[in-house]
Design a protein that fits this description.
By secondary structure, the chain is mainly alpha-helical. The chain has a domain of 90 residues. The protein has five helices and no strands. The mean pLDDT is 82. It is found in: Endomembrane system. Belongs to the AIG1 family.
């Protein structure tokens, strides 16, 4: 038995992603008012993908807990569809995009910080928020 049940862990991860998204959207940054807004940043897109993925995970966990003990074929079929959606999203979107964002961001950051995260952004985005948006997906 795990120390923290997977349902509680997934709910906590979902809440932390949502809090980071809310903090990021609350920042008044000049780049948010230009073409594309926040959606032009791959880190933001990845954070949204991760939040949606963990939302589906929490929904799957809740559905499996609520349907446990029922012999309904329809509920079991819908739960299997939800599980296959969760697995597909992990394999196709969440994991590949997350690994790409983390490895590329920190590789380019080490090479030349100004290419991906100029010092000017330190005035708008705190270091903990940048680290949370980029590294938390791993």
């Amino acid at each position: 038995m795990a120390l923290v049940p997977c349902q509680v862990l997934r709910a906590a991860i979902l809440l932390s992603y949502c809090s980071i998204l809310c903090n990021y959207k609350a920042i008044d940054m000049p780049a948010h008012q230009t073409y594309g807004g926040s959606w032009k940043f791959l880190t933001f897109i990845d954070l949204v993908i991760q939040a949606v993925f963990f939302g589906i995970c929490v929904l799957t966990d809740l559905s499996s807990l609520l349907t446990r003990g029922n012999d309904s074929q329809e509920q079991e079929r819908q739960l299997k569809k939800l599980i296959s959606l969760r697995d597909w999203m992990m394999a196709v979107l969440a994991f590949p995009v997350g690994v790409f964002v983390v490895t590329m961001f920190w590789s380019i950051y080490i090479y030349d910080r100004e290419l991906v995260y100029p010092k000017l952004l330190d005035n708008f985005i705190p270091a903990w928020l940048n680290h949370g948006m980029v590294s938390k997906v791993m």
